[in-house]
Amino acid sequence: MDSFKEQAHKLVAKMTVEEKMEQLRYDAPAISRLNIPAYNWWNECLHGVARAGCATVFPQAIAMASSFDDKLLEEVAEAISDEARAKYNSFKKYCEPEIYQGLTFWSPNINIFRDPRWGRGHETYGEDPYLTGRMGTAFIKGLQGNGKYRKTDATIKHFAVHSGPEDERHSFNAVVDKKDLYETYLSAFLYCIENADPSAVMGAYNRVNGEACCASETLLEEILRGEFNFNGYIVSDCGAINDINENHHITNSPTESAALALNNGCNLNCGNAYRYLTNAYDEGLVSEETITEACEKLFEARFRLGMFSDDCEYDNITSDVIESEKNTCLNRKMARESIILLKNDGILPISGKKRIAVIGPNADSKSVLLGNYNGTPSVYSTILQGIQATAESKIIYARGCELTEDVEGKWCEQPENEAIAAAMESDIVILCMGLDPSIEGEDGDKTDIELPFVQKKLLNKIVETGKDIIFVNVSGSCVNLTDVKKSCGAIIQCFYPGAEGGNALADIIFGKTSPSGKLPVTFYGSEDEIPDFKDYSMKNRTYRYFENEPVYPFGYGLSYTEFNYSDIRIKGNILSVKVKNTGKYESDEIVQFYVNSAGYNNQPKFRLVNFKRIHLIPGEETEVEFFIDEEIFCLYDEYGSKHPFDGTYKLYIDSKCPDNNSPVTEFNFSKKS
Description:
Elements: H1 4-12, H2 17-22, E1 27-28, E2 39-40, H3 61-66, H4 70-94, E3 104-105, H5 129-144, E4 153-159, E5 173-174, H6 178-185, H7 187-196, E6 200-203, E7 207-208, E8 211-212, H8 217-227, E9 233-235, H9 240-246, H10 254-263, H11 277-282, H12 288-304, H13 325-338, E10 340-344, E11 356-359, H14 367-370, H15 383-390, E12 395-398, H16 415-424, E13 428-434, H17 453-464, E14 468-475, H18 482-487, E15 490-495, H19 501-509, H20 542-545, E16 563-571, E17 574-581, E18 587-596, E19 607-616, E20 621-627, E21 634-636, E22 642-644, E23 647-654, E24 665-669
Parallel strand pairs: 3-4, 4-6, 5-7, 6-9, 11-12, 11-13, 13-14, 14-15
Antiparallel strand pairs: 1-2, 7-8, 10-15, 16-17, 17-20, 18-19, 18-23, 21-22, 23-24
């Protein structure tokens, strides 16, 4: 049987040049004479099948990154691809699939969350290139499957150097040196390409060093196709090719923009720019050979998805898998693993029949469960609902305040007084505050990292009651928790946790499960501590280069038990540590391996190079081993080249990003040995 590539070549050879050009649009029309149905390439599944009706809504990407559990994330992606196939099979059977009803998904977002003000940061796997690469790889593998056909297509985005500002993304020029480009902004893309073979790459809206990303010879031809050996198809972000002439002013017309993008390797256009390919072809700006090459790549993908076959192993997946009991249990497990305990003076977990007041604008909010690019759950649990279903005593609920604004007017309800009364009548307060997707998202960035003023005001009032407070910060990004850290007995970071978020959080609060999540981003004390938002240099950004003390560091997260790390030693190329559960609760722990290369000029203080999740019962001890390979001693130079450097390196195994108190082991590396 012919390969997918050969089948695509034979089919495309039967098309006219006009038909081939039409197939390079995301809303590709049918070619009835060749029995080719219409197909819409635009589909979303960031944390569940999105915008296509009911689906299992898993925690937002930043939340799943907090689990540091790439094996579980691959299971999540497998479940998402099951639901995607089920929906596609139904749509294909009963009607013609349209936008958001196909198999080619524009996920995951593996951009680096370099600045906490970026609105779309919660779509990513955090600030670290290695963690992002590991988690992105798992997600891609789960989506695409390993059968004869691809289960779905995964698209890694946005290539490249994109993390705000959102309101200028259609015209912004990200200026970055080669070291930061390769070390930070391209690293996860290369990792995913080498380890997961993603079907597609999506270009970004912005320019990089003057070149429009979706038409950049440097990014697409030299780096992506050349250096990274990417052989899949490249798709533009939606409307990005129009930006080339309208906002970047690189070309003078949409015809020139379409030609520039196609000639530099952008095979598929989301938007209407490739409608001008006819003009570009007539004017000699693009060749039929280039058009044919792009069209063949797209049809190779469709053949690989089994769209023209009658023996695809995924055609029998039915809608029974959608929001199935299995997927709901998986969703709750991922949500539990994503929750991070930042502080606990002993008030957690809650036991007995304590009177509990649940207060705050995020307590009974559905939107904070769902994040963005989400599906629609038919059943969900808000934080309040999860606590009500689990607590042994009656819950007193008060909203307390709006998310961002004071209630005004003498005839208006005054929820603050209700919250104070609820607190006074309780033994313990669970205060649910933070942000929601209306404050941070594709529609805009944050101007600061503070809690909204109205929430600070309510927080102070509740603190004045003298009650024990469990502060639950629900957000998709860093929020300044300096004052909260001083005034509340316990702090939980709950990134947008999905449809099972309330149940999962209740499992943690009432001790059914010990918390095990770790921060995938640094929690700063002020936006004044980091550079200007538009500055793309990594100096003084993220744990790798930050020069001050964070409120909570990358990789940080507590448990209900205690873990003792001992006997860290090197034997040959194996770094090992003994980890013992010395507390009273069984729990997972995430053992993290870092390298310090700060002795070299302009290199990161610390780099995460590996991690492992383990589970220990009280009193149990295990030995965790990490292989020391040459890769961890490879550093990027000023030209963006990566190569090993001889020298003495400090190696750390810790439960968080290392500090001056972390145990350290030295290793002498020589590439000649």
